[in-house]
Amino acid sequence: MTPTLSLDTVTHRYGDTLALDDVSLTLSNPGIHGLLGRNGSGKTTLMSLVAGLRKASRGAITLDGQPVYENFAATSQICIIRESGDTTSEWTETINDGLTLARDMRPYWDDAYANRLLDRFQLSKKHKVNALSRGQRAKFACLLGLAARAPLTMFDESYLGMDAPTRYDFYDALLEDFMAHPRLILVSSHHIEEIAKLFEEVIIIEDGRVMLHESADALRGRGLTLTGPAAAVDAIAAGANVLSEKTLGSTKMVALYDVAPDLEERARAAGLETALLPIQDIFVHLTAKRGKD
Amino acid sequence: MTTAIARREPIFPKRILLDQLIFSIMVWAGFAVFMFALTFIVSLVREIEVSGWNIGGQPARWFAFVVGIYIGWTVLQLHVTHGGTRKGFAIQALIFSVAYAALLGALFVLTFFLEAGYYGLMGWPQALHQPELYAHPLDFGMALIQWVMIFGVWTLGGLLIGVAWYRNVILGALCIPLGLVAVSISTYTFSGEIGPMNWLRAFVPPQPGAVPAITAHLAIIAVFASLTWLAIRDIPIKNKSEAG
Question: Could you tell me the pLDDT band of residue A293, with boundaries at 50, 70 and 90?
Fold first, then answer.
């Protein structure tokens, strides 16, 4: 069962700081969806509100039509794993204590899968949580998120601290588990180039507002690079929305966004090399255009 | 596909109670052995005239207080981040505090009987420094009532300070004088001693005793529980970096 998550004109303030500004968003398709944004854009606030960890200053957040905040019928269907690893206590608790808590609290918890992930991530039940390295903590937090099998699962930068091989192992585990148990998974990450291939839909949030929400395939199709002789590239790219350009001798490469439907065909006919622009590049260009450093 | 599972939020704090029960029994066993050993060491330099275990009630109530803080500070966050509600936590925490106070009270009072055997063996008198609700350590009924109430107030006091401090440092600090007032009233209703807060005499019954003690402790528990709920009901669950 994939739930429908709806945010209707959600605004959230921390004192005088506006963190989310009139956000409306609906997610109902099963998939691994990317929530992208620069630091301070409002991603963590959005996920925290969706999980009921905070109460929105204004607006409504529902899961399958039910208000999320202080509603166990909704919150028990949601799992959020934040970068700070706050689903585990760290006084004297072991990984086994963390698993026992999750088993007790999570209605969809899969113990056998959790044990397989322990082996996969090379964690021991006897390890004390406060003695784990940052990467090990991240692995344990991601394990808790995966094995919870919540219909709405959110990973908020939760694999920061993992080294590259472990991150790729996590992406594989995430995809495998999603294929076996399709559900709504929302991932925020700064490692966009690594995980973008998993995304079904992409939401880009900037300055607390949703800048873009569309399918990952459609987004990829909106960006194009052209490479070839400078004169030919300039001729084809004339009038297009140019995000960046590089020149090496007589060869030029331009990155275009929101290209005309026939532009790729014309470029190929002119002998230019074409390639889809990676989502990360589109994200960088879209958010950098706002004049931030 | 994941099959939808609907269940009610549990209100009985089974896991928290079990965790704390095991931990507290371990601490109690260690503390009892320590107190008995300490009494023996003291007996080498002076006469034993009163129950050492009764004096051990001071650190015991602080232990209950710290457990209350742990529940309010740590378990609240875990409960909500794992999909529970604040209301569900508040109900569980209240039930926990009452049940935990009963457990600690029973452990504490039953230890007087172990101490009676030990003192009998050593030929020491098991008297009280001053009578409270119970005139002798083996007055099981009254001793149990007193210690359950003490542990209840201290556990709930810790819970209140834990959640208030988690919500806001100033709010947490403001709870400290409230706690001191509660402790003074609690002590007075058992022993007639009110400590440095002599001004409180205007608000307490003229004589200590079972009825004033039970009434005062129920009132303190009601106030603590109400304030705890006010602090919890819309508390933001912060990132660990913010909360620390």
Answer: very low
| Chain-chain contact of B85 with A75 (C-beta, under 8 angstroms) | yes
Q: How far apart are CA B6 and CA A63, in angstroms?
A: 14
Asked if A106 and A150 touch (Cβ cutoff 8 Å), the reply is yes
CA distance A63 to A74: 6
Residue B244 has pLDDT above 50, yes or no: no
A82: phi then psi, degrees, rounded to nearest 5: -95, 160
Strand partners, A276: A224
Kindly state whether B74 is in contact with chain A, defined as any CB-CB distance less than 8 angstroms.
Answer: yes
According to DSSP, residue B192 is labeled: S
Q: Cβ separation of A1 and B1 shorter than 8 Å?
A: yes
What are the structural domains, with CATH classification, of chain A? 5-214 (3.40.50.300), 223-276 (3.30.70)
Q: Which pLDDT score, from 0 to 100, does residue A85 have?
A: 65
Nearest to A86 among B70, B77, B86 (CB): B77
Is the pLDDT assigned to residue B82 strictly greater than 70? yes
The CA distance from A195 to B81, in Å, is 25
What is the Cα Rg of chain A in Å? 21
Residue B15 lies in a domain: no
Predicted pLDDT at B50: 94
Interface with A, mutate which of B2, B3, B22 (most A CBs under 10 A)? B2
Residue of A nearest to B233 (CA): A70
CB A285: neighbour CB atoms within 10 A?
Answer: 17
* CB-closest option in A44, A89, A149 to B74: A89
Q: Is A17 on the interface with B (CB under 8 A)?
A: no
Residue B1 pLDDT exceeds 60:
no
Domain span including residue B56: 50-243
A236-278 per-position pLDDT tens digit: 999 998 988 999 999 999 999 988 889 999 999 999 999 999 9
Q: What's the ipTM?
A: 0.90
Percent of chain B predicted with pLDDT > 70? 97
Q: How many domains does one find in chain B?
A: 1
Residues whose CB falls within 8 Å of the CB of residue A48, separated by 6 or more in sequence, listed in order: A54, A80, A82, B237
Examine residue B55 and state whether it is found in any structural domain, yes or no: yes
A60-105 tens-digit pLDDT: 999 999 999 999 999 999 999 987 667 777 777 899 999 999 999 9
Element (H, E) at A169: helix A164-180
Whether pLDDT at B198 is above 90:
no
Evaluate whether A170 touches A142 at the Cβ level (below 8 Å): yes
Q: Give the A:B interface size as CB pairs under 8 Å.
A: 92
